[in-house]
Design brief:
Blueprint: E1 12-13, E2 28-29, E3 33-34, E4 37-38, E5 51-56, H1 60-72, E6 76-81, H2 90-93, H3 125-139, E7 145-146, E8 149-157, E9 162-169, E10 175-180, E11 182-185, E12 208-211, H4 221-224, E13 228-232, H5 236-245, E14 251-256, E15 262-263, H6 274-282, H7 284-298, H8 301-305, H9 312-328, H10 332-338, E16 350-351, H11 353-358, E17 364-368, E18 371-374, E19 378-381, E20 386-388, E21 391-394, E22 407-409, H12 416-419, E23 438-440, H13 454-473, E24 476-481, H14 483-497, H15 527-533, E25 542-546, H16 562-565, H17 591-607, H18 615-621, H19 629-633
Parallel strand pairs: 5-6, 5-11, 6-7, 8-22, 11-23, 12-21, 13-14, 13-21, 14-17, 15-16
Antiparallel strand pairs: 1-2, 3-4, 8-9, 9-10, 18-19, 19-20, 24-25
Helix pairs in contact: 1-13, 6-7, 13-15
Length: 634
Amino acid sequence: MVFDPNTNGNASRHDNVQDDQPGGKYGYRLGHKLGEYQIPDVVLDSPNRKIKVITIGAGISGILMSYLIQKHGENIQHVVYEKNGDIGGTWLENRYPGCACDVPSHAYAFAFALYPDWPKYLSPSEDIFRYLDRVVECFGLRKQMVFNSTVISCNWNEDESQWYVRIKNSETGEIREDVANIVIGANGILNSWKFPEEVEGLHSFEGRLIHTARWPTDFAEEQWKGRRVAVIGSGATSMQVIPTMQPHVEKMDIFVRTPVWFAEFADHSGDNFDYERETMKSDTKALVHKAKFIEDKLNTAAGLRAFMVHSAEARMIREHFTNRMRKFIHRDDIFEQLLPNFAVGCRRLTPGNPYMRAVQKENVQLHRGAVTKVTPSTIIASNGDEVEVDTIICATGFDVSFRPPFSVVGRNGISLQEKWKRVPEGYLSVGVPDIPNYFTVVGPSFPIANGSVMGPLQAVGRYILKAIQKMQRENIASMAPKQSVTDQFNEHAQAWMVGTAWADSGCRSWYKDNNTGRVNAIWPGSSLHFCELIAEPRYEDFEIQYSNKHNVWEFLGLGFTRNMMAENGDLSPYMALDAIDGKFVGYEPDKDAEDARVRRMADMVHDGPQKKGNEEGAAAERMPFSNGSIGAMH
């Protein structure tokens, strides 16, 4: 007989349950009570408690969280606040000439939305935005998003276990407040651009001063003609800007403080062939195969060993990249200026074939040295070079301190900005001690350069969703990583970095603190290593506080499971086809041997053990039941 709470005399209907409290989903109360503790009307593993989640940023990470919560979450109110007027994040903001992703297109897509129709192997920003827009439209994700809304502060209320978030409307200037149980920092680290303020007199320049992350719409190809342009910076952005602008300007001076190693990717770096695209449109298996082929190339063990400076792989890859540079760069003076004297991978590997061709053109002058001073009409390098220019382009990157561009104040008034002012130490890239119910999608020690990027990003998304669901289903008020566990992880991470390319003192890189040498941005292992570790949250690493401070088992509720209450719930989930061991299917033992074993057991049970000189009797005496006990069960 199946017990049905619908007909039980002890159960009574009630309709007055608060949405943010456990209960109310099934509308029954047993009425069981012991002292002040009363059984709530919840069933095990049910999203009976409404959860409010605020995500900051509608770039790739915010889109991912919107999809996961909409697809797999229940009873979750999700709001995404985005400072810009549309989705896309860095792919909306960065529209400088030649802007493109340096990750192969098929590897820069969500696993749930692989795209067969990428026009280029390395996609320009416009194509990436178009893809993200297609994902958002396909799944109807914009309804979760509020645009032109800049988060300016997040303050934790310990008594309520809630975040109070202040948001400024960028169009009207109006400031309002929202409240949530959980905040997800999906704002990334490549969104807060910066001029090289250490350059003396930078803003005294009377010509055109441009940062690549804020490229003016009125400065296109037709405006470049006749220009004398200086480019500051030697990272991925300058690798793209320089070959795009070089053919159109009168003169280009490039200032390189630290060179880079030029990479090559997977199978090719040109257009995606039309026949491949047409095949993948009609054959999903071919599409998955293509994406996996590229991802496999990014995730090899040899690839990780290449970042270990004393490995054979590191020596081989350095020799290969050196020979490759020599193949492209025919001028000895330029080759010597651009050949790095540090390990491959210390700075981000960048596709650079067009760049290597451009720097050898007659209208280009390469200056090896940092820019130290700018006058109203000239730019001066540390090697003494001074050139007259009318345009300065700063390809100088972003604030990569990991401190969010808004105030975050957690438990006991602890400020995240202050906590990370000296060293950004997080927990597995996803959390921060003393900042409860706050998750970072790309935090310190994310595998940003250790292989695949989208794989780990999606792993973090699933991790956060699992944490939200645990909080919801177990009525958890707050959770934050333990400081001791976080400290131990960071000790391990920094020890692992010793002897890797990322810790090479010979280069400057945004992966590390260039003053102390501490590597802040890299995971201590491969991308797959990261994904496997965070596949299941280690809740033992968290300080967890329950909403019911007197009884953490409140979530056990009525004693029913979710399947028992569902109309077509599986009432025997332990019986399943995949539970059957194929070895047992069709197994036929030796019949005579089987009969003998059965007779021997029957004799042992019914006749009892022999008292002396009988090995079988002695064995029977050691059986965990006494003579006749089985018979008594019949």
